[in-house]
Structures are given as C-alpha cells and as structure tokens.
Amino acid sequence: MITMGDEKTLGSEDVEVRSNEERLLKQKVIKFALQKKSTALLAHLGRSKLGFADNEVRPKCWSQLLNNQLKKSSEYKRQQLDIVLNSKEVHMDEHQVQLDVNRSFITIETPIIRNNLRFILNYFIIKILRLHPNLRYYQGYHDIISVIIVVYLNMSLINEQLKWNVPINDVNEIMSSLTETELFNAIESFTLLYLRDFMTDSLYFTIDQLNIIPKLIKDRDIFLFNKFKLDQLQPFYATSSLLTVYSHDLKIEDKTFDNNILFSIFDMIISHRNMAIPLVIYSNFIVNAKEELLKAYESNISNFENQNDLINVIIQKQTLNDIFNDKTWDDVLSLTRQNVLINTSYLKTSNVNKYSVLYNTGSGKDQPLTNYNIKTVLNYMKNELIINEKRKIQIVRSKKFQLLRSNISKSIMRMKLPMVYQITLVVLLLLCSSYYRHFPNYSYNIDFFKQFEGNNVCHNLYIHFHRLSKDILASINRLIAKT
Amino acid sequence: MSGLRSVSGSTNGKNYDSIMKILLIGDSGVGKSCLLVRFVDDKFNPSFITTIGIDFKIKTVEINGRKIKLQLWDTAGQERFRTITTAYYRGAMGIILVYDVTDEKTFANIRQWFKTVTEHANDDAQLLLVGNKSDMETRTVTHEQGDELSRELGIPFVEASAKNDDNVNEIFFTLAKLIQEKIDSNQIATGGNAKDSNININSSGGSGSKSNCC
Fold first, then answer.
1. What's the CATH number of domain A212-349, 1.10.3210, 3.30.930, 3.40.50, 1.10.472?
2. Which residues have C-beta within 8 Å of that of residue A301, sequence separation ≥ 6?
3. Is the Cβ pair A142, B50 closer than 8 Å?
4. How many helices (H) and strands (E) in chain B?
5. Considering the domain A55-194 in this protein, what is its CATH number?
6. What is the DSSP string of B52-102?
7. pLDDT band per the 50, 70, 90 thresholds, residue A460
8. Which secondary structure element, helix H or strand E, spans residue B159, and what is its range?
9. What is the mean pLDDT of residues A22-33?
10. Which end of chain A has fewer beta carbons closer than 10 Å to its terminal beta carbon, N or C?
11. pLDDT of residue A367
C-alpha cells in the first residue's frame, strides 16, 4: 500500500513533485501487477490513493478486473456479434440518447474533437441498448459512458493524432477493432455489474439506494441527522451524484482529458466491486460539511416555506461546492477508503430488492475476485424488471385508492349539511379507509369506495361504520369478559 | 454553476417582500434550463448540460416597487424523473409548462404534463404555457396551435427564444405578476398554503442580509 506523508509541512511545489514521483512509482508497480496478471494485487492498488494513477495503465487494469468479475463465454460473445451485426431494430430510447449525446462533452472546446467524441458515445450507447433491449436508458448514463470512453481512448495522445481533426463516420476510423472490443466489453461489464438497478423504466431502485444515505449519516452524526430530520426527507439531493457516479459535475478537462479524482472513484468501485461507494462518498460529504450546512440552514430558514425544499437545496448546493474543491475530495475519499464497506444491516432495513447490485455483483463482499457468469447477471436483471413492474402496479393502485378517498371527502364537503355532520362523515371515511386498507387485496378497497360515489354517501358510510363499530364493540366486550 | 445571488440592504432583516416558488416542467430537450440560465445569468449555450433530477436557482425581481424573490426549480424532462420532480410541486405558486415549437411531440405531451400538475400541485398554482425556440425556422407547431391549447387549458401563453433572448424575461415577469395579483386578491396567502407541508417556517424569523446559500 502506498501512503502519503503529511503534506502540510511541504510547500505546494514540493507536494507537486512528490505526488508526481508517487504517481510514477505507482505506475511501475501497476505495470508489474499487470505483467504478472495478478488481479488481487491490481485490486489492492486500485483501492489506494491515486487509484490506477493514470490513463496509460488504467484501461488495462479495468479490463483485467472487469473481465475477471463478469465471465462471458465465447458462445455468448459469438451470439453478441451476430445480434449486433444483424440488428436493425431501433431501441425505444434512442431518441432520448440522441438528445443527451448532443449535450455531452461540453467541456471539450474543439468542435471537431467534441463531435467525434459524441459520435463514439452515441455508437456505444446504441450498441449496448440494441444488444440488451430490455435495459432502459436513463439520463446520466451518457455521462458515465463518456468517462469510460475517455479512459480507454488514451486521450492524452489526441493532440498528436491527426485523424481526430476530421469528422468521422465510423468508429473504426479512430480506434482499432481490438480497442473497440475492449472498450465495449468494459462498458457492458460496468453496466451490468454496477448500473443495473438504474436501468429499469422507473427510479424505484435508484430511490431505494438513495435512501441508504440517511442511514449512513445517522450512524456518523446523530445530531445532524436529527436537526435536519433526514428520516423524513427523501434524499433526492444526491440523485445526479449517484446516477452518474459524480461524472455529471466532475467533468473531463479540456485538452488534458483528465480528471483523476473522477477516474479514481471508478477505480475504487471496480477494485472493491462495490457500488455502495457513491453512497458512502455522499454521506461523507454531508458529515464533512456539517458546520457549513448548519450555517446555511440558519441563514436560509426564512427563505423557504417548506422544510424539505430547504434541506434539499442546502445539501445539494453545499455538495456541489465541495465537489469542485480538491482538498475536500482528498478528505472525503480518504474517509471513504477507511470505511468502505457498508454494514449489511442498512440493506436489511431498506427497501432494496434482493437482486440489486448491492446484494451481489456490487456488494463489495468477497471482494474483488468473485466472478459472475453473464447468464446469472442477466437473470438478476430479468428479476429486477419483474419486481419493477410489480411495484408499478402497486403504486398505481394505491394512487387510485387515495384519489377515490379524496374525491369522496370532497363530495362530502360539497353537500348541504351542517359543518359538524360533514366533519363527522370525513372522520368516518378516514376510519373506514384505514380499516379497509389492512385488507390484503387492494381492489377490494377500491370497490369499497366506489359505492360511496354518488348520493348515498351518508347512508353507506353510516352502515359501514355501524358494522365496524359493532365489530369493535364486540371485541371490547370479549376483552372485558376475559378479564 | 451556481446562479444564486444575494441581495443586500435590508431594514427588517429580510431583503425581499415575498417569495415565489416557481417550477419549470416539460419534455426533455425543450430548453427549460436554457430559459432559466438566460433569465438568471443572461447566457446561452446551445448544448446546455442535461438536467438530472432537480436543480435550483434564485433571482430577485422588482414588481410594482416590491422586491420578490423567485425560487426557480428546474426539472429533468425524462419521464422516470417525475417520481422525484413531482415531490417538488407541493407549494409551487407558479408552474411553467415548456414545449419546443420545432417538435410536435413535446407539444402533444403538454396535456400529459398538465394532468401531472393537476394531480400534484396546489389547486391555486398559476400556470403558464411556453413555446420555446421561436427563433427556429424549422418550426412545426404554429403560434395559433399554442394559442388554441392555452385557451383550452385556460392558461396564459407566451412564445419565447432563449437563444435570441426573446420574451424570456416576459415569461417570468408575467408569471410573477399574475401570482402577485392572486396574492393581492387574497386568493392565495403569502404564508404558503401548501397542501400538507410538514412544517411551515415563519417568514418573520428574519435572516442576515448575506446568506450562504440563497
């Protein structure tokens, strides 16, 4: 393990020289591990400071680890080739992909290079979607794939490569078929191992993952947790950080095509085989910025009518501030390195589905040498899609239920009855509905409410409440009799 | 990145007379963020970054001598993000429904957005329909069509171009004025009458003239 000394005693120039030396040294060790094909040593190197050091060796490290983590049989690869060659079937999300590709690589200032990168980005996203038509594209996926592309193309050499200065019509004009294959394999493996949960047609599993953040903070700083009532707030503030693994905000720099902090986060995920890392990082950002957050809270309390809006805004803005601060990243990443495994009890008390990446391919357990067969992983995905559909139906039903209930209470309030009666009826309605909610069959609940639509509301409610109160009275009587 | 501005000078601890929460919604790529950036920062970038989840900016404007702090919430257009963005509809006083005049599909989807608004927003939220990219020659939705839809939905309508800075300020000022009128005629109360906001923070709490965030 390579460690850094205390930088505070050194001048900034010295630090730069030292960190450069450190980088070169690390590169040498990485090259050695690659030569020896030692996956364990590579993973160890990827987890420590600087990650895989630079993009000369990084793609080789990623490929070595990812190919080890997700096994693709030669039969699968042949099938894959056939499908891609023959498939003219357009994926339903290709229009959305186009919209986002057109807004990608905005930090790259040379138009031809930017456009060529967009061409490549579009090519790989479409290829993955056509090969796995049941995966759904989400906004932010393009940011992640942009990162993988830049790493594999070794863009530091780009300025010397004349072919980049003309618009391309085919990716083969810019990369060898070997690079294309390696790059595609990395994209496919990273997607299936780590991003699967995000690739349904909803955000249910994304939100399940986000909900782990407050649990992590609760353990670290109960005061902050209570002060901001983080348990009562959906952690939507971290949405883009999680969905894009920070690549929405941390951008690839123009000319150098570098962003070592961003790349090293990917290094950590791959070498720990752990997709909880973005969540751990976010919770560390929040705990780390405690003082600033408390200050921002006090000074903005009068600017918001809604507590949830306030907390969401101050956390999102503070984190965005910190994301552009290298020093904060040093602190947060070193904290994350010390405490990378999340306690599985968080998962147990969460809503995370049992086929989620956090339970298997990205769990960080038995790291990082466990390997998965692609068939198994595609099967996880299939199961996740089924659970996603079930959730959707559940949510639609419960929405219908609530809508009916609110319609009925509105119609009660519209009736020409004395206020006291109206209020009594609404209370009756709420009592009945909470009683009937416990019936396992939701459609029964909906039927229950349907009979109240129309003019007989009072009468029917009365009858139902009468029945209900009789039941309650009877059970009370039974209790009394027992004692 | 941040469009936050603080307004200095205050006598009562507050540097504004009222706050308005305003949301921009509409399909992906219609130019919601571009309109917002044009209004707040007076900038335009044709390949503006994709919004993921929700984003927030603030701008203080003066209407009829009153300082109004506009809380502007920018949302992601892709359908899946509605789970997140609708959580922010609560308490919004103004909602801007944006479509792209060069893309009929985004215009057709306005009805769907309108439905989402009626399901999640306060009944008294002021709506405004905006056809963006009015500078483009490749227009496929006419001004008349926009007008017709706005009459059908019973909401005001503006065509605008974030690129040419046409009518962009008008969008926000028109909306703010309409909301102000509603407040004045007591249709909605200033203190925020969100359907069931957990906690109502009293605006008289007072704040420093310099804020960390907003």
1. 1.10.472
2. A310, B201, B205, B207
3. yes
4. 6, 6
5. 1.10.8
6. -SEEEEEEEEEETTEEEEEEEEEE--SGGGHHHHGGGTTT-SEEEEEEETT
7. low
8. strand B157-159
9. 92
10. C
11. 59
What are the tens digits of pLDDT across the range A172-220?
888 888 999 999 999 999 999 999 999 999 999 999 999 999 999 999 9
ipTM of the complex: 0.81
Q: Mean pLDDT throughout A28-57?
A: 93
Q: Which of B1, B21, B214 sits opposite A300 (nearest CB)?
A: B214
Kindly determine whether residue B197 and residue A138, on different chains, have CB atoms separated by under 8 Å.
no
Domain chopping of chain A, boundaries: 11-54, 55-194, 212-349, 415-482
Contact A301 B201 (CB under 8 A): yes
CA distances to A63, A428, A433, A446, B90 from A402, rounded to whole Å, are: 50, 15, 10, 9, 17
A106: which chain B residues are within 8 Å (Cβ-Cβ)?
45, 47-49
Q: Round to whole Å and give the CA distance between A233 and A305.
A: 15
- Residue A442: is its pLDDT beyond 50? no
| Three-state secondary-structure class, residue B130 | strand
Return the CATH number of the domain spanning residue range B18-187.
3.40.50.300
Tokens of A40: 């364990």
Give me the sign of the Cα torsion angle A6, A10, A11, A15. negative
pTM value is: 0.84
